[in-house]
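Late entry, S-adenosylmethionine complex.
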Amino acid sequence: MKSADIIESIYKTADATRDELRFIIENRSGESARMLYGLARERACEYYGKKIFVRGLIEMTNYCRNDCLYCGIRRSNKKVQRYRLTKEDIMECCREGHSLGFRTFVLQGGEDMYYTDDIMTDIVASIRAEYPDCAITLSLGEKPRESYQRFFDAGANRYLLRHESADPEHYRRLHPAELSLANRMECLRNLKEIGYQVGAGSMVGSPYQTVGNIVEDLLFIKEFAPQMVGMGPFIPHHETPFAHEKPGSAELTLFLLAIVRLMNPKVLLPATTALGTVENNGREMGVLAGCNVVMPNISPMSVRRKYMLYDNKLNADAETEAAYESVKKSMDAIGYEVVSDRGDYAG
Ligand code: SAM
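Prediction complete; structure with ligand written out below:
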């Protein structure tokens, strides 16, 4: 078995076995990576051309009831200055984002019970009414099915909920006892059934992660067939139990992103901020490995430094417009064009 043959076969069939995935990951080299990136780029181009979709990320709250061991805004981190955006703050972010050309808004936050279903539904409905041409993505964690349904009925289109790890034992080592992979999966299934475009995904190089875990993540993504996949490196945060763990590497992240593209040809695949944080030009390298989405931050400047999931986050101090311009320029420099478009899944 040679890596080149396996990669060729994944390209042709959009599928792979456990053994094949393990083999190409364990035996990866500069040569196999170059081949993989080239084919992944070609696949992305086939469905999306040399276009990059942007999503305006609004970090609406850093309050969280959860205590995920890796996350900087976990409830046990008493050093975080907590904040919440009001509906007016969020509408103002959308206004600025829309005028710059964003046609997708992503409302992300910790699991903050202040935002009841009534409050959230009102926020979603207001954005929907004001911006009928835009997609609304939510990333607010685990909720009962009824809540997801209400947000959907109010006008939300997409939901990002990374599965974090498809191996229950590994999942347990990253999360406190009250969270379970079974519930995460149940949420993902509910979201899909309701009709959301759904994003799953995981961190690369999270503590205790084995190649076997990574293979299971790739196979789960293939089977669940989400429309979006969020996959970026784990980066330690100094006020968490994982403060002294090693970050995930850009090299392995890029390799896996390219495999995700080949196994899920039409997937909407962001080159994450975390990838741009561990590696200079990481987001550009992501695009050259098959990514087709970038998610610039459009949160108010006053809260940027408070939404720190990990240390040294890229562009934490960059003004919305300047950061957006720099994404446009950097994509232009590698021959890609940032477009003002909802950027839906190529169905
Ligand atoms: N609370 C929601 C949820 O759990 O889906 C959305 C917010 S959560 C902070 C968004 C994502 O950030 C998580 O899915 C996780 O993968 C990522 N994340 C958190 N801490 C991280 C870290 N230290 N390094 C890299 N990514 C991290």
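The domain at 3-339 is CATH 3.20.20.70 (TIM Barrel). Will revisit in the morning.
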